[in-house]
Design a protein that fits this description.
By secondary structure, the chain is of the alpha+beta class. About 70% of the residues lie in helices and about 10% in strands.
């Protein structure tokens, strides 16, 4: 494989890299953004989980408060029923107390208006027998005891009524206070729950947005990778075609170089005897045979075929074979000799082009028969090609 083909393959490899690199660099940049988005989604997921736990805890507290409220409401209902029953009992008891009070008052007036003790003694003394006296005594004792018990019961009943009233009223006050505290707690929990729900909703929205951004970035990355692969494939196909074309061109160039060398060798050999006019079948006239200096320059130029170099390096190396040391810009080589016409051109002359075909000045070495050795050709390769390229040749006879 010649140097030219190796150069093409090396350039092609760099080309593939340059084509794929922007896509992969973009994919790497997107990957970095995806990683940030992934971390954001994870953080939001954790925040959402914590917020949902807090919301569940508040909901549980609300449920517990509602259950307590229901229990308290049931207790208050029962207390109200108890109060109603107690009110009825108190009313009944007050009626009994009122009746008992009237009876006690009547009994007290009777005792005041009558000499009850004397009456009791008279009743006992008027007994017909001891047994009758004992029975009458027991009856009087029972009557006296009954009155005392009635008064004692009256006192106990009044105390009981008052105690029950105080107890029920206290219980009602306590339950009312509990109900108020429970109601305040429920209101507070409801507000807290609403706040938690808004917070959870906002995090969920933010998480959904972050997940969408992450998916969008992943899609961009995948597309960049796909485009990189497509570009790589397309460039590989282009390089394969270029390689095949370069191989074919190299074969053709080798054939042309061999033919040109043969022709130049023949031209140089003939020129050693004398100067003569030669008419080429390629319609190029050579006015005079090449000098020994020209032969050396032409031979040195042909010896460089296939070398990777620019046009000035070709000319410099060829001139060195004739003992001339010079290197410069293409136009500088015109100072090394005099301009001759195309009809006078002979192998070993330099050729200057104001435009070598690529918009730049160019220098070459003429080898006869309308051919020239060019450096910097098709990727800086040294080749044999027509002398009539670009802006046209200006032939220079080296002194």
């Amino acid at each position: 494989m010649n140097k030219k083909l190796l150069t093409v393959l090396a350039v092609a490899s760099l080309t593939v890299t340059s084509v794929v690199t922007p896509y992969m660099a973009y994919a790497e940049d997107v990957n970095s953004q995806i990683e940030k988005a992934k971390n954001q989604v994870e953080n939001l997921t954790n925040k959402l989980s914590e917020a949902e736990k807090e919301l569940a805890n508040v909901s549980a507290q609300i449920t517990e408060a509602e259950e307590k409220s229901a229990q308290l409401q049931e207790a208050m209902t029962q207390t109200q029923k108890t109060l109603t029953t107690l009110t009825e009992d108190i009313k009944t008891l007050e009626e009994i107390i009122a009746k008992r009070t009237v009876k006690l008052q009547t009994q007290a007036r009777a005792e005041q208006t009558e000499n009850t003790l004397e009456n009791y003694l008279g009743v006992i003394l008027s007994s017909r027998s001891i047994v009758d006296a004992i029975e009458r005594f027991n009856a009087i004792s029972a009557l006296v005891t009954s009155g005392a018990e009635m008064r004692e019961q009256q006192v106990r009943d009044k105390e009981s009524v008052e105690n029950k009233k105080v107890e029920v009223e206290k219980k009602l006050v306590e339950q009312s206070q509990n109900a108020k505290e429970l109601s305040d707690l429920q209101n507070e929990l409801s507000v807290k729950k609403a706040e938690r729900e808004v917070y959870v909703s906002s995090i969920a929205i933010e998480k959904a947005s972050a997940e969408k951004d992450k998916k969008d970035l992943e899609a961009k990355r995948d597309e960049a990778i796909r485009q990189a692969e497509a570009a790589k494939k397309a460039e590989a196909e282009r390089i394969a075609k270029l390689k095949a074309a370069q191989e074919q061109q190299a074969k053709e160039q080798q054939t042309r170089n061999a033919l040109a060398a043969q022709q130049v060798g023949q031209g140089i050999a003939t020129a050693t005897s004398s100067q003569q006019s030669i008419t080429s079948q390629a319609d190029v006239s050579i006015g005079a045979t090449s000098s020994a200096k020209g032969q050396a320059i032409a031979a040195a130029a042909l010896a460089q075929l296939g070398v990777m170099q620019d046009c000035t390096r070709l000319a410099t190396n060829a001139l060195r074979a004739a003992g001339i040391n010079y290197h410069g810009w293409p136009i500088g080589y015109m100072s090394l000799g005099t301009v001759v016409s195309a009809a006078e051109a002979q192998p070993g002359d330099l050729i200057y082009y104001a435009n070598g075909g690529m918009g730049l000045a160019h220098i070459a070495v003429y080898i006869g028969n309308g051919k020239a050795v060019h450096g910097g050709w098709n990727g800086n390769t040294t080749v044999v090609n027509t002398a009539y390229v670009g802006s046209g040749p200006v032939f220079i006879r080296v002194k």
